[in-house]
Design the sequence.
C-alpha cells in the first residue's frame, strides 16, 4: 500500500504531488463583491479581508503528471489564521471550481479539497480581445471578456485555500472537515491586462446566486509555469 497513492488499487487515478504545469494560460477577471455576500461565501473560520475582492479564473493547465485539462473557478480573497505558524495570512479561497477531466477532478478534490465538478472552459484571443467562459449542462455559468491593452503585473495573493470535506461512510457527519492551503509557485513569462466585463449565471446543478458583482476591477492574462505542491492543513472547519 505504501506504493499506491490513489484508487483503483491496480490502476491509480492520479499520482502523488507535486504537480508541474508547463506553459499554462491563465485569465483572472477581478471584481468587487458586496461584503455581505462574501461573508456568506467564506466558511468559518475564514473571513473577508479589508478589500472585498473576488475573481473568476479561466485556465488551460498542461500538467505533466495528470494530463492537459481546462479549469474555471470562482475565487474569494480571504484571511485565515495559520495554526502551524500562529500568523494571520491572506489567501485565495476556491468557492467553485470546474475542470474538464475526471483525473483533475479526483486529484483536486481528494488531495487539496478543491470543490471540483466537470465542465468545459474555453479561452480565445482574437485581435487582442480575450473571451472566456465555463459551460456546464448547456448553461454558460461564467463569461468574461477583456481587451488586452496594457502589460499585466503579477501580484502574489497568497496560497490557494480550500474547504476539504469527506463525509463519513455511514453518512453521519464528516470524516474530514478542514481548511487546507497550497502554496503554489508561479514563473510568469508574459502578462497582459485591460478592462473586463463579467457575466455569472446559475445552472441546474450549480447555484451561483451568492456570487454578486458590485463593480469590476481589471482583467489579467498570464502565460506561466506553475508548481503545485502538497497542501497543508491550517485549521479545522467550525
Sequence:
Amino acid at each position: 500500500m505504501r506504493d499506491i497513492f490513489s484508487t483503483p488499487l491496480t490502476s491509480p487515478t492520479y499520482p502523488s504531488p507535486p504537480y508541474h504545469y508547463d506553459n499554462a494560460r491563465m485569465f483572472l477577471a477581478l471584481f468587487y463583491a458586496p461584503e455581505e455576500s462574501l461573508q456568506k461565501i467564506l466558511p468559518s473560520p475564514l473571513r473577508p479581508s479589508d478589500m472585498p475582492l473576488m475573481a473568476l479564473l479561466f485556465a488551460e493547465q498542461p500538467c505533466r503528471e495528470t494530463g492537459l485539462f481546462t479549469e474555471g473557478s470562482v475565487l474569494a480573497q480571504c484571511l485565515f489564521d495559520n495554526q502551524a505558524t500562529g500568523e494571520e495570512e491572506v489567501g485565495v479561497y476556491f468557492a467553485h471550481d470546474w475542470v474538464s477531466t475526471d483525473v483533475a477532478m479526483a486529484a483536486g478534490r481528494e488531495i487539496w479539497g478543491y470543490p471540483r465538478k466537470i465542465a468545459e472552459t474555453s479561452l480565445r484571443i482574437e485581435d487582442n480581445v480575450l473571451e472566456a467562459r465555463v459551460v456546464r449542462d448547456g448553461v454558460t455559468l461564467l463569461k468574461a471578456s477583456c481587451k488586452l491593452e496594457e502589460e499585466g503585473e503579477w501580484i502574489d495573493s497568497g496560497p490557494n485555500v480550500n474547504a476539504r470535506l469527506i463525509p463519513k461512510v455511514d453518512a453521519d457527519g464528516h470524516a474530514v472537515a478542514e481548511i487546507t492551503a497550497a502554496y503554489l509557485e508561479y514563473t510568469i513569462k508574459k502578462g497582459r491586462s485591460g478592462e473586463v466585463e463579467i457575466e455569472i449565471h446559475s445552472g441546474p446543478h450549480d447555484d451561483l446566486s451568492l456570487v454578486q458583482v458590485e463593480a469590476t476591477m481589471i482583467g489579467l492574462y498570464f502565460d506561466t509555469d506553475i508548481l503545485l505542491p502538497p497542501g497543508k492543513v491550517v485549521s479545522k472547519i467550525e
